[in-house]
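Quiz preparation item.
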């Protein structure tokens, strides 16, 4: 994996996905392992969107591997506006060893990867959020012992988080169900991709409208905000469309008794989730948030460094 880009979970084979997760688990278990692996290396954090977890976890991950980061906001760089994406990619490749980019358009990431001579990591785009999905699977693996055969129900918008979670889940052999209102389904091309992964791994995928049907017998119940960054103008429309998709205690009761509740944060209590759920005993949302650090540390180690046995 050394020297590769990480644009999409779909870029991984099942074995490569397992390698990232096992490396992350070892780094979490043994914080002193590979602490100098990226000594002298620099990661550019090229962010069009604001961030808490992504920025801090990448920054700390690089520090713990012996490297450091340079944060570049959109106001400083003007990616695609003040300066062409291709030129930014060429310039940064002369300065840094890797680029973690948080963008609006997936096409921006693809253009960065095309023209950069260093690895480019998708730190979130409007289409996909692979680093979050890696953290999600590590969390499921910790809570359930394995991902293979686990029943994961995603309730809400067929957005970037749902797409990457679906890719990772089906690639790893989980049974992934997403319940969304009409007009907010996963794109057809993503569903076709998930079906292919599921057929190869022994998992399954379903896209339905009923949140109750999706959650029934689930091991994992996952939701996300109804309105993401850049969608604020459609807030009222989305709030009406998703009104029946809140994860309440009653909805959670349809899942298995030992089911866990997941959310990638930030969360809006009283919208996509009831406070009693996200703050309740089944919630593992802060374990997910912590695991962003461990999976990103693993990805950086595998893409930019050499794994030390």
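Solution:
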């Amino acid at each position: 994996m050394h020297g590769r880009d990480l644009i999409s979970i779909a870029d991984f084979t099942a074995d490569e996905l397992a390698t990232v997760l096992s490396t992350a688990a070892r780094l979490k278990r043994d914080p002193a392992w590979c602490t100098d692996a990226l000594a002298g290396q620099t990661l550019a954090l090229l962010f069009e969107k604001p961030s808490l977890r992504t920025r801090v976890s990448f920054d700390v991950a690089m520090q713990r591997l012996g490297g450091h980061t340079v944060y570049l906001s959109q106001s400083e760089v003007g990616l695609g506006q003040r300066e062409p994406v291709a030129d930014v990619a060429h310039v940064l490749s002369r300065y840094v060893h890797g680029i973690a980019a948080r963008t609006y358009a997936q096409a921006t990431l693809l253009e960065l990867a095309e023209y950069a001579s260093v690895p480019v990591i998708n730190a979130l785009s409007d289409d996909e959020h692979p680093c979050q999905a890696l953290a999600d699977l590590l969390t499921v693996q910790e809570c359930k012992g394995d991902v293979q055969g686990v029943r994961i129900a995603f309730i809400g918008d067929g957005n970037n988080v749902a797409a990457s979670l679906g890719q990772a889940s089906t690639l790893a052999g989980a049974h992934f169900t997403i319940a969304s209102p009409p007009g907010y389904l996963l794109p057809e091309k993503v569903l076709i991709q998930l079906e292919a992964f599921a057929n190869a791994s022994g998992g399954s995928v379903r896209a339905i409208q009923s949140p109750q049907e999706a959650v029934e017998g689930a091991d994992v119940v996952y939701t996300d905000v109804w309105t993401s960054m850049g969608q604020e103008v459609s807030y009222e429309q989305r709030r009406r469309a998703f009104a029946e998709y809140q994860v309440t205690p009653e909805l959670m009761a349809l899942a298995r008794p030992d089911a866990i509740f997941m959310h990638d944060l930030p969360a809006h209590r009283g919208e996509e989730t009831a406070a009693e759920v996200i703050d309740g005993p089944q919630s593992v949302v802060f374990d997910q948030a912590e695991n962003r650090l461990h999976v990103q540390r693993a990805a950086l180690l595998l893409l930019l460094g050499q794994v030390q046995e």
